Amino acid sequence: MNKTFKINNQNIQISTFAKTGTTFMESLCGEYSDISRDTYTNPDKHYISVRYPLDRFISGFCTLYYRSHQNNKTPEYQDLYTRISKMSLHDAFYECYYSQKNNWDFDGHTIKSYSFIPEDHTNITFINFRDIGILLSQLGYNPININDVYFNDNPNKDKQYIHNIIHSDKDLYNDIQNYLGQDLGIYQKLPIFNFNA
Question: Could you tell me the residue range of the domain that residue 45 belongs to?
Fold first, then answer.
């Protein structure tokens, strides 16, 4: 898992991957002292927040791009981040694609992640990342001051732009699908619970 959070008084664990509610959960930890992060336990109930892999990848690339000017990346790839920070979204995407030979594992936002999901789904409920707020509300957690700190949303126009780039280039599309193949295979088999809000 990318990040795990424990609701201490209920022995409930919530796990997220990059772009599936991590920023929201980290902000909630700052507001509620009975929610702790990076706690791995044997919970009574374990919720895992997931998102369709291609959508997660596209949003992840946008975050990677917007943060490329920050000097907090893996030193091995700092030159790449520096290069793309000076490029358009389009050029940055292709620079990463070509320079890394379609291996996007260099950044936590685009790395394949679903292989970390336990094979034993006992006590695990998979939820759509958009339902994490509904789940927390049902557990009695309603953030007092929801603001921008709670969200790491990328502009829809930029996500749609990357989506269009991928879908308009057959070879690129096939390569990205290949890269995401393992995550796509795992995701398609998950029993994802739908909340009725």
Answer: 3-193
Burial (CB count <10 Å: 0-12, 13-18, 19+), residue 111: middle
Q: What pTM value is reported for the model? A: 0.91
Dihedral Cα 66, 71, 75, 76, nearest 10 deg: 30
Q: How many domains does the chain have?
A: 1
What's the chain's length in residues? 197
Structure confidence by residue, pLDDT tens digits, 111-160: 999 999 988 898 999 999 988 888 988 888 876 555 554 566 778 899 99
**DSSP string of the chain, one letter each residue:** --EEEEEGGGTEEEEE-TTTTHHHHHHHHHH-TTEEES-----SEEEEEE--HHHHHHHHHHHHHHTTTSS-S-GGGHHHHHHHTTS-HHHHHHHHHHHTTT--TTSTTTS--GGGS-S--TTEEEEEGGGHHHHHHHTT---SS--GGG--PPPHHHHHHHHHHHHH-HHHHHHHHHHTHHHHHHHHH--EE----
